[in-house]
Amino acid sequence: xQLQHLPYTPLRITSGFGPRKTxxxxxxxxxxxxxxxxxxxxxxxxxxxxxxxxxxxxxxxxNYYNVIRGWVLLIDHGTIDGQNIKTLYQHLRQSGRPVGTxxxxxxxxxxxGNTGVGAQLHLHFELRVNNTxxxxxxxxxxxxxxxxxxxxxxxQAKKIVKEKVGVDDNTIQYLLFYKYGETLIKKIAVAVx
Length: 193
Ligand SMILES: [Zn+2]
Prior knowledge:
GO terms for molecular function: metalloendopeptidase activity. Keywords: Signal. InterPro entries: Cell_wall_metabolism_enzyme (IPR050570), Dup_hybrid_motif (IPR011055), M23ase_b-sheet_dom (IPR016047). It comes from Aminipila butyrica. By secondary structure, the chain is an alpha+beta fold. It has two domains: about 15-145, Glucose Permease (Domain IIA) (Distorted Sandwich); about 150-190, no CATH class. About 25% of the residues lie in helices and about 30% in strands. The protein is built from five helices and twelve strands. The strands form three sheets. Strands 1, 4, 6, 7, 8, 9, 11 and 12 form an eight-stranded antiparallel sheet that branches. A two-stranded antiparallel ribbon has the order 2-3. A two-stranded antiparallel sheet has the order 5-10. Helix 3 packs across helix 5. Zinc ion binds near residues 15, 33, 35 and 124. Zinc ion binds near residues 33 and 124.
């Protein structure tokens, strides 16, 4: 099973999967996911860390708020290699894509936030295989784009996509801000380079 896209770019794991000590009331001592830190190169605010993206194609099956998790999205990716795969995205800034929405890998589903119990802005990400949480870290590090994207900048990626794919600025803006996010632009650029 391979994930096709990062839930947040760049990949910066601030807390791993498994047992941990915490002094945050209400935070779990057995961590069922990984925490991803915000992109420090961007001028994000304390409550908005920018786009969170789906790791595989799937359908939003749950979208809710509670005081511990904050805003949460759960996506069902169906059966892959004989196992049901779901992913969960937590502490989102706001209510994300509605239940029933079909999403593509890399599609923006919400923004990183700090809702619920959390010391600071971050994304809590869970990978569930047959409804059991497993450590997502090896899967995140095995994504092709993480290995291949290298140091390509967004501007370089836009230029390559414009010239080689032949799309205009409006289409680029649409892909960037409305539907997919910059990781997909970079992915296309790497593919057509
Ligand atoms: Zn967490």
